[in-house]
Amino acid sequence: MNKLNMQTTNIVDENIQKIGELFPNCLTERLNAEGKPEVAIDFDQLRQELSKVIVEGPEERYQFTWPDKRNAIRLANAPTTDTLRPCREESVDFDNTQNLYIEGDNLEVLKLLRQNYLGKVKMIYIDPPYNTGNDFVYNDDFAQSAGEYVHNSGQEDEEGNRLVANTESNGRFHTDWLNMIYPRLKVAKDLLSEDGYICVSIDDNEIENVKKLCDEVFGNSNFVAQFVVIRSEGGGLAKRAVIGHDYMIVFARNIEKCRPLGRPKDIRGKVVKKNGEDYWIETDWFREVFGKYGTCHYEDILKFYNQAKKDEIDKGIEKKEYVLIPRDGKHIVGRYRRVADDTSKFYTIVKHLNKYGVSDLQEIGLNKYFDYPKPVSLVKEFAQGVTILSKNDKDIILDFFSGSATTAHAVMQLNAEDGGNRKFIMVQLPEVTDEKSEAYKAGYKNICEIGKERIRRAGKKIKEESPLTTQDLDTGFRVLKLDSSNMNDVFYTPAAFTERDLFEDNIKGDRTDEDLLFQTMIELGIELSAKIEKKSIAGKTVWSVSDGYLMACFDKDVNETTIKEIAKMKPFYFVMRDSSMATDNVADNFEQIWSEYSKDTVRKIL
Hints:
Helix 3 runs parallel beside helix 5, helix 11 crosses helix 12 and helix 17 (560-568) packs parallel to helix 18. This protein starts with a strand and ends with a strand. The chain is globular and about 80 Å long. Strand 20, helix 17 (560-568) and strand 21 form a beta-alpha-beta unit. The protein has helices at residues 11-22, 43-49, 69-77, 106-116, 173-191, 207-218, 283-290, 298-308, 310-318, 354-362, 376-387, 406-418, 438-441, 447-465, 489-492, 513-524, 560-568, 584-597, and strands at residues 2-3, 27-31, 37-41, 83-86, 100-103, 121-126, 136-138, 163-165, 192-202, 223-230, 245-252, 263-264, 343-344, 349-351, 396-399, 423-428, 478-483, 532-537, 540-545, 550-553, 573-576, 602-605. The chain contains 18 helices and 22 strands. The protein has 606 residues and is α/β, with parallel strands linked by helices. The chain is 32% helix and 17% strand. The strands form five sheets. The protein has a ten-stranded mixed sheet with strand order 4-17-5-16-15-6-9-11-10-14, with helices on both faces.
């Protein structure tokens, strides 16, 4: 059996392998810090291979750089031994949901997600700190002198996550922000599918830098548009000019493989009264009932259905007097699936006022806790634009600066409106709320607690408003929390310990079997929303993931009977602790049992 590494892939090693495939003559060996040989790149040889395009030394060239950029790249590539621990008590419908809410430093979380969601995310939306002079940015341990970081506050939240005040008086004002966002964008790129998009909300403070960063990370040829987002009206207090807008920078992962952003067209038609037949909604009839003029939009129909004449229409549906008919012919009230010729294009100016975001939270009683929440309508519009023509109705939407969890709210709302099955992954640092804040007084000790409560309330509200169309709507989420590895140091560096230490348990005493299961899932590339079942086989607890794709047993004193019964189920992976086998005889017969019943199963130990 092979041993699990219990750490993420080393991206530098992967890059060396790729260079070696292209230029095998550029591979060499050297001794590492432990005096052991390792594969390395002969850069002199590589320069010769690329001699026509190499630019180095004092030669002038166009480039976008800043202090510590190299460290930022190193940080993005470095592996992590951290893990994600499940928290069932804070989750909603843990066993069935496909949605994730992850607490922790988003850089480390993104590295872990890269193991499971490489090339699987359809859309990334982020609303990072705008670097207004009052924000806190992540301090990722870059080399620093007292002079350079004289303004750093050294603040840590209760979980030990480092936050550093980035005030305008800081001489590294833009540098610190760039060093925070750059490695996160580099890792996030790996998560996007070939036809995926990333959408970044930003304001004037860092708009130029965000565009240059994305040009470098995603490639200028994959630039889609710089949208102007109207966020406020008025501006009587403006000192020089009314700045009533932010921006949305949109890049494609591979623009040649991406479908255009689109919007659904208006629903139009006329009522055909035939017993037992389905009817279109006639524009004039709808306008008369709802008191509108002009064309009727799908959102108007939903609003009418949910608020104005819901009971009347429900009765009418039962009598087949009127039905809202989607374009694909599925007769489900309030659902509208699009086809390629049923969309219109985006314009680069969109209007989503700040007050809409406040109203979104006000409707679920959480408006006191965030000053400038993004409107649900903004995220919903872009999520719809990215996924409207998708062939996959289970697109994943990721937000790794989750904040108030607007993106989760938008995904659920959009699914309720059009019958989609999009899934969300939210990532948020558990930033501590100020003790004087309304949130703290209400019992919310960190931002994550507010975000999770928003998803709970929003999901409940959406289902209550549209009971006929949301029976199968996924409003649950699995809560996972970033933590240090489940393994003791002896697991990673046995040579640094005495022979006596090697006989100690290599798993930390406070970790559960389910903790071990999730770190195993991360290493084996299994989605963290996968179905998990707990079985009893021959008196031992056995975990089954994705209907037996992975089976794991972490109990002690596992005998041949248990192993034989598991082998008969023919899992793709089987994992157990190296100290779990009941006797030496079980260990001796282990491989023989698997060879007899399931020789192709990949067996691993930890």
